[in-house]
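Input structure tokens:
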């Protein structure tokens, strides 16, 4: 098993009242699964992804990742685990404004202390794969939303993660780009055994998953 969430609760307190963002979430995901999480805005999809991706905390429950108890780790340990095994495609890109396209894509490799020659080869491969070689010296502000998302996907994939988390991964792409990204995810999942968890509103995208989990108000409502 790759990860397990047991009785996860997350809430915010306003004027003494708790509002649950996640309410008693239990989830087991095996290595090599492709999971789609669906639900309306505010249902908890992004919150759940951020917790799985170790970017957000929770008040109650236990989280095991590769048998490691994430809930008991210090922030530095969680960050190390995240950088080693997880690639995240964010809805709002989260590119670093001061870095070029090339430098943004290269960033995860710097964390892994990969040698310069290998980094160059890996970045060149990603630029080519996503047809953005001509954009490599541009900064995020000089790109369209769709181009920024492609850079975000390239950055998430470059370190060959065990787990890809994708939050509305095709929200800013045209239909052709969207199909290409989903086919790429499918290929990574089927041929390389990469586990993929995506949050999406899009039923066509969700259908790529081998399992669809539906959230409403932070709770499971159906698991197909």
């Amino acid at each position: 098993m790759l990860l397990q969430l047991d009785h996860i609760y997350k809430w915010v307190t306003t004027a003494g009242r708790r509002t649950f963002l996640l309410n008693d979430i239990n989830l087991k995901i095996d290595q090599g699964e492709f999971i789609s999480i669906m639900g309306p805005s505010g249902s908890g999809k992004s919150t759940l992804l951020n917790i799985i991706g170790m970017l957000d905390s929770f008040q109650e429950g236990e989280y095991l990742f590769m048998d490691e108890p994430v809930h008991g780790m210090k922030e530095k340990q969680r960050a190390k685990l995240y950088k080693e095994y997880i690639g995240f495609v964010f809805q709002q890109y989260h590119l670093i404004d001061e870095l070029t396209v090339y430098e943004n894509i290269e960033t995860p490799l710097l964390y892994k202390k990969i040698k310069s020659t290998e980094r160059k080869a890996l970045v060149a491969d990603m630029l080519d794969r996503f047809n953005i070689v001509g954009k490599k010296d541009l900064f995020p502000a000089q790109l369209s939303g769709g181009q920024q998302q492609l850079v975000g996907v390239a950055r998430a994939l470059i370190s060959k993660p065990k787990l890809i988390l994708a939050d509305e991964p095709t929200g800013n792409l045209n239909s052709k780009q969207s199909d290409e990204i989903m086919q790429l995810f499918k290929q990574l999942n089927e041929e390389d055994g990469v586990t993929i968890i995506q949050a999406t509103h899009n039923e066509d995208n969700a259908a790529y998953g081998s399992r669809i989990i539906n959230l409403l108000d932070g709770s499971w409502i159906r698991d197909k």
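The CA atoms of residues 71 and 143 lie 38 Å apart. Residues 175-192 form the longest helix (18 residues).
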